[in-house]
Amino acid sequence: MFGKTDELIIVLLIVLLLFGAKKLPELARSVGQSAKEIRKGFADEPEAATKSKSTKKA
Q: For the chain, what are the domain ranges?
């Protein structure tokens, strides 16, 4: 019925109505920081796993 673009526009309009134009930049910034922290955590995870394995061997 709808294309992906139409659905995205509808979701963005609902978010605009819920949070208002003044809160959107702050909301986007916090979502970006959260995504950055998650990626950083996933990048650090293999190092932590190898450190714990080496600690168990000793």
A: 21-58
